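Board notes (copied after class):
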Amino acid sequence: MDGIYQFGISLIQGLQTMSPALDGFMEAVTFLGTIEFYILFIPALYWSVNQSLGLRVLFILILTDVPGSAFKQLLHEPRPYWIGSVKAMGDEPSYGIPSTHASNTLAVWGLLAYTMKKSWMWTLSIVLILLIGLSRLYLGVHFPQDVLGGWLLGLIMLLLFLKYEGRFLAWWAQKTAGTQILLGFLSSAAVILIGMLVLALISGSPDPAEWAAFSTEAREIEHYITLSGFLFGAVAGTTWMGTYARFKMDGSALQKTGRYILGMIGLFAIYLGLDILFALFAPDASLAGYILRYVRYALVSIWAVFGAPWVFIKIGLAERG
């Protein structure tokens, strides 16, 4: 692996000769692959553009991020700035391969392009996939193999999603609302169990002393709990929305803008408010803290998928579908 690492470091050093001229641009591009960006983007798509597509993007993002996080820990490979003479333009506590920026971007934008079937969307998606991958190299936080591995994982998840989505939804539609919510909870619990299993498998393989100081937070369970909360909230929210708050996409530009502004106010009130409130009751790295984390992210997802549309209908920002 030393030769592969050195090749990657040399490539990154070459890219970084364009620093600081491209720093701001690359940081902006890499933001488009973050969870924070998707928190801003997916609600806009779901509330104001295409309800069905918004839900599909939400689920493929979660389903892609779970194996991405698991493989990061199973492989526990370093990031470039942990071991080489490259400029670190980001603080990344997780392991390197695969790049979840790359995997999530390919899965999400691949789904958007495939669904919309517009040449401009294919062009935009390809450009974003390539630029976000390149930005991870430029910023010194990923090796080329990390990005390639992320693209491979994203492509596999996209193909699996497209192949099995139809038959899964047909099977899912036969379940009662209570069964759907129970299955959502069990699926979210499975995400946490995956994380626990992965951490158990690597517990006997410590990181090399040369870069162990950079990976002190890389073997934590918190991200699985975040994903599991999001997953349960998305499933429960979708079930309740379909029963109580199905809404139409039409409406004036003012109504659609109002949906987004009001929805995001509620989302951030829950996201930030519960973060402050729950911190008063338990530290993050405790059983109570883990439970509260799960509740927090589940409520964020439930608000986005069900709560906000219910409010939109009640106050006239959307018509019942």
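Comment from the instructor: Residues 27 and 135 are 7 Å apart (CA to CA). The chain has two domains: 20-78+95-174, 175-205+214-321.
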